[in-house]
Design brief:
The chain is mainly alpha-helical. The chain is built from one helix and no strands.
């Protein structure tokens, strides 16, 4: 009879502990699920931001007129920008 009573007590204790542990197990599992969902949402938001940035960059490239080519630098051997004065010749009288 003592063995039967001991088995019954052990079984009751085991079932009692298993029943008590469920809420904490569920809470931990829910927390893991919430964390993974939050991570997925962050990843999706980052992808959307990068796509939007690429679209804005493309729009800016399309809206910006092509720059005019810069004028070629003038050589110094060509005519100067200001006329030079010729040396005055002495007047013969």
């Amino acid at each position: 009879m003592q063995k039967t009573l001991a088995y019954a007590v052990m079984l009751a204790a085991t079932l009692g502990l298993a029943a008590c542990d469920k809420p904490s197990e569920n809470a931990a599992e829910d927390a893991r699920e919430a964390q993974s969902e939050a991570q997925e949402s962050m990843n999706e938001a980052a992808e959307e931001r990068s796509e939007a940035a690429q679209e804005r960059a493309e729009e800016q490239r399309q809206q910006t007129p092509e720059p005019m080519p810069a004028p070629a630098p003038e050589n110094e051997s060509e005519q100067p920008a200001t006329p030079s004065t010729a040396p005055a010749e002495p007047a013969n009288q």
